[in-house]
Each structure stands twice: as C-alpha cells, then as structure tokens.
Amino acid sequence: MLRVLLSVLVWCTIAFAGGGNLEIKGVERVLKNGLKVIVVEDHSTPTVTFQVWYKVGSYYERFGKTGISHLLEHMMFKGTEKYPNGEFSKIVSRNGGQENAFTSRDYTAYFENWAADRLEISMELESDRMVNLKFDPEEFDREKSVVMEERRLRTEDDPTSLLVEEVYAAAYKAHPYHWPVIGWMKDIESITLEDIKHHYRTFYAPNNAVIVVVGDVKAEEVFALVEKYFGSTPPAKHIPEFSYEEPPQEGERRVEVRSKEARLPFIFGGFHVPNIGSGEEYALKILAAILGGGRSSRLYKRLVFKEQAALYTGAYYSSKTKDPGLLCFYAAVKPGVSPEKVEKLIWEEIEGILKNGVDPKEVEKVKNQIEAEFVYGLDSNFYRAMNIGILETIGMDWRYLNSYVDNIRKVSPEDVIRVASKYLRKENLTIGYLLPEGS
User: Fold this and answer.
1) Can you tell me the distance from the alpha carbon of 414 to that of 361, in angstroms, rounded to the nearest whole number?
2) Is residue 245 within 8 Å of 140, Cβ to Cβ?
3) Choice among 73, 112, 349, 362 that is catalytic
4) CB pairs under 8 A, 24+ apart, for 410-415?
5) Per-residue pLDDT, 377
6) Looking at residue 153, what DSSP letter applies?
7) Pairing of strands 253-259, 429-436
8) In the predicted model, is pLDDT for residue 12 greater than 70?
9) Domains detected in the chain
10) pLDDT confidence of residue 373
11) DSSP labels for 390-408?
C-alpha cells in the first residue's frame, strides 16, 4: 500500500569494516519450500526490520489488468480469519512498531520496524497473510475505489505526474514498463475479485519470496523462527516466467500533455540506458549526477542560475531495475520562457559534455558524493535491508553492494564521455512537454 513515499533511487546503508572497506556481512539460507532468508546482524541498536519481498510488480501484469499488483497490496491489509480487517496494524501499533508496504514495477514488499524482541510477531503476521488472505467482496469493491481515487489525486490531477506517465508510455512500446505501477484507470475498473485471487495464488508463495532481516538479532535464531512460521507453507506448483525485450529506439519520440491544472510548462525526457549488471551503470550514475544532480550540476547552473530560464531542473538514473531503464532529465520552465528555449539549453549542456568532455575534478566530486550516500546511511537497518531486497527480487546477488563503491571509484572521465556518446542521442530520446491548457 503506497501510504508513504519511499525513495528507491538512493544507494545508502552498508556496514563499515575497518581499513576503509565497505561491506555487508550477511548470512542466507533457503528453506525446503524455496523461501530465501537473508539475515544481517547489527547489534548497534536494539531494533530490527523484517521485510518480505515478493517477485511481482507491474512487470508481471498484462494489458487489460494493469495495476493488479498494487491493488493486491492494498488487499493484503484486509485481514485473514485469524486476524480480521484492521487487526494487523493494531497489533503492530500496540507493540510500538511501524508497518507499511510498497509496489514497484519489479517487486512488492511488506515490512515492520520495531524493537528486536518483537521480531516473532512479524513472523506470525506475515506467514499468516502469505496464504490465508480473506477476499471479502465488499472490502474489494471499497479498496478498488480507494485505488482509483489515488490515481485521480496522484496522477490525473497532478499534471507533472501525468507527463511522466505519458513519456514512459511512449518510450516503451513492447515492454511492461510501458504502463504505470498504479495501472490505467479503465484496467483498475475491470479487475474482478477472481482476478485478484488468481494473482495472489500465483505469486504469493514462499518460492517466489525473499525475507530480509537486519538488526539486533542472531542469524541462527532468525532461521529457526522462519522455519517455525514459514517452513510448512507449501510452495507454488508453477510460477510463470516473464521475459521482455524492448526493441531499439530508432528515432526521437515526442509527447505533449495539456492540462487545466498546469500553471507553467514542464519538460521531462528520458534516454534508454542499460540497467544493473551491465557494467555501465557506474559511469551512467556519475554522468546523471554531473548533468543534473543538485544545485552544483551543469543543468542547474546553466538553466537556473545563469540563464534564469527554469525554476528548477535535474537529472537522475536508477540502475536497480529488472530490465533496462531510462536516464531522465526534467525542468520547470520559468514564466515568460518558452519550453523550446529550455530544451535547447539542455541540449547545449549535453553537447558540451560530448564535445569538451568532463573535468576530472568534477568526476571526483560526484564519486565522493555517491560514496557518502553509503556512509551516511550506515545506521539504517531499514534501507540496508531494502537495498538487499531490491537486488534479490530483480535477479542480482545482494553482495553486489559490497563492490559498488570500488566500482564507482574506478570510473574515469573517459568512461563518462563514452556512455554519454553512446546513449545521449536524439534518436534514443523520448521527451514530453506539459503545457497549460489554452497556451
């Protein structure tokens, strides 16, 4: 249930070992039913995070039923025979914990954060709703209305979100990243109770899940508890396999959104780029930061400070996706300035990188910033577990984290120029304009 905004773009939280090395020391085990469990002991505070990650998100949906993974996430809070609707959250609250969930393109995750001596409560609650979820027709209809209203508020009445959605839909033609995680409105309307039951029975199974526990625990005790509560849960007999490949883009794509809610033009665009495991993600991360990562980036200094053509601007790239994603940029156009002028300025900055390269000091500064993101998050059990869970559900070994900073350090200015030349091309771009209605 998307009750809070969770940032998954920031790499943060790994354990620090002496001698300047960065390392997560985890222990893993796979139960006979296929459930994978990863435990990271951290005794610095008497707290723990318990997370259950399911390998299902909007990537695993189909046309006509988009948004079903997110809707099922909502239904997961509607109770079982043992714990009626609302009881789950009451139990967590009475024990001083926090609980929530989130759905993405590639996964759905549920978590509880609380004192370490409450860990067994998570096991009891999550093991129960993994297999015993109730599907009350009235609650289903009510929750479907809630999700439809969520879509109205967060997308259809938010013109910048609507633009982002349209750009992704244009950028992906043959891949499920084409549709939004929340789904298209007509598809949400069409989802039936039987559809949601089938989705649950297909994907919510121990052999399609990963449990991540980080905090003041002992690994062997955690494994014993997981065996006690999840060990007897039968695995799914068949979990469908999904594989997609978006064909190469062979020409610039443009979209235009006009909205009465928009007050000023807004630009959003994205270039197709590789994802995690390609070996190019490290240079792409640095390239995005140089281009638009904060107030000292090239786009911000040019568009906001020097030209005063944009109210704000930026660029970002997240490699942690199952399939290749986008390196994106955006700009809020200043009153009295045309979006065409702002786009021209953005291209001038991109071309400046391609023609003149990047300053080694500029690259070193960004490397330091990325490394600092790891160090500053050292005390967060939650985000350490979150990074592990994301990697495991998109098909990467969580130990990837332990070499991430070293690989960032190895990136040279020439590497940055190389990936910029390879991917920041107009024929690889999908760009959208948000325009006020009547402009």
Assistant:
1) 13
2) no
3) 73
4) 410/282, 411/282, 411/283, 411/286, 411/363, 411/367, 412/363, 413/357, 413/358, 413/359, 413/360, 413/363, 415/282, 415/283, 415/286
5) 62
6) I
7) parallel
8) no
9) 18-230 (3.30.830.10), 253-384+395-436 (3.30.830.10)
10) 82
11) HHHHTT--GGGHHHHHHHH
pLDDT at 148 over 60: yes
Q: CA-to-CA distance for 188 and 288, rounded, in angstroms?
A: 34
Instruction: Say whether pLDDT at 389 is over 80.
Output: yes
Tokens encoding 329: 């940029």
> Which DSSP string do the residues of 96-150 spell out, in sequence order?
T-EEEEEE-SS-EEEEEEEEGGGHHHHHHHHHHHHH-B---HHHHHHHHHHHHHH
The single-letter code of the amino acid at 157 is: D
Q: 44 pLDDT band (50/70/90 cuts)? A: very high
**H-helix or E-strand spanning residue 92:** helix 87-94
Q: Is residue 354 within 8 Å of 206, Cβ to Cβ? A: no
DSSP structure class, residue 279: S
Nearest to 58 by CA among 429, 323, 329: 323
With H, G, I as helix, E, B as strand and everything else as coil, classify residue 9. coil
**Confidence at residue 437, expressed as pLDDT on a 0 to 100 scale:** 87
Residue 78, C-beta contacts closer than 8 angstroms, at least 6 positions apart: 85, 133, 134, 135, 136, 139, 140, 143
Tokens found for residue 418 = 């190389």
166 is catalytic: no
Tokens of 260: 């009465």
Q: What's the whole-number mean pLDDT along residues 111-126? A: 98
Greatest extent of the chain over all pairs of C-alpha atoms, in Å: 66
Rg (CA), the chain: 23
Query: Residues 254-307: pLDDT tens digits?
Result: 999 999 999 999 999 999 999 999 999 999 999 999 999 999 999 999 999 999
Residue type, 293: G
Element containing residue 182 per DSSP (H, E): none
In the structure encoding, which two tokens stand for residue 127, read together?
Answer: 């093991």
> 293 by DSSP, 3-state: which?
coil
Start-to-end CA distance of the chain, whole Å, equals 37
| Amino acid code (one letter) for 240 | P
Q: Which residues of 270-280 are buried (b: 16+ CB within 10 A; e: fewer)?
A: bbbbbbbeeeb
Tell me which H or E stretch contains 77: none
- Confidence (pTM): 0.93
